[in-house]
Amino acid sequence: MTVEDLREELTAIDAIYPGCIEEVGPQIFNLSPPGDEYLIIELSFPLDYPDIKPDVLAVVSKNPSKYPDERYLEKSVNDIVLKVFRKGEVCLFDLFTELEEFLYKYESNQNENLETASGTDEEVNEIEELETQETQETDYFMDKRSFDIQVKDPLEGWTQSDPIVDRGSTFIGFARQVYSVEDAENYLEIMKTDKKISKANHNMLSWRIKRDDGVQYQDCDDDGETAAGGRILHLLTMMDAWNVIVVVSRWFGGTHIGPDRFKHINSVARDAVIKGNFVAADKNSTGKKKTKK
Question: Which residue positions does the secretion signal occupy (predicted)?
């Protein structure tokens, strides 16, 4: 990979995580986890990257009360780099994803060490979460049944993923074929007239369109969920999916689930794309095209 190739990867990552990468020297960059200005990870990229992994030069905590153990953090970041690195493949996107999950768990553990909660309260919370999850699942399937009996269904023509329910939050992916930006925008507006979709806390989306003359269009929208639209666009790019719009709807159940939400967003988006047969057979061989009728 040339220096230009590395910069292309950095540009793509900056589009997904704006302001999280800063060049501080030749082939040396500071990374800051999305939404966290108190931790700086200094990486050095060899000229032979991605055949050779990047090196972690330092991990600096700007908030000792939040990140008190720099030595532990540096070891953990090194472990993450080793985990995500595959010779010949760029790894920055996976590195950011793993960092988010690690730091979420790290912060949760730090908070648990500072807080004391009675076992009774924890049991009550678990019961409430289970009840919320069961209610969410019931509401979804009841609403899905109402979708099916409507004469004019705003979701007609959309391939729909299986729902994922986690701690009260529900994630569903939708995909359909489009051949122009106008198609994508029109189908999206119709979709949003559906009562269930309009009540979603987030409707994250992305589309990729390639015209017959070779002109390409791609765009994404986070809808309030930081970097979610960019993640869906990255997924579509990795799957080499074209002429498709993907929407991931999330109904928040009241309990924050941390980076797990991004796994669910990717999972339902991928499920909808594969079920809709929007990727070449040699890319994915899962299932036949299914559209909602």
Answer: none
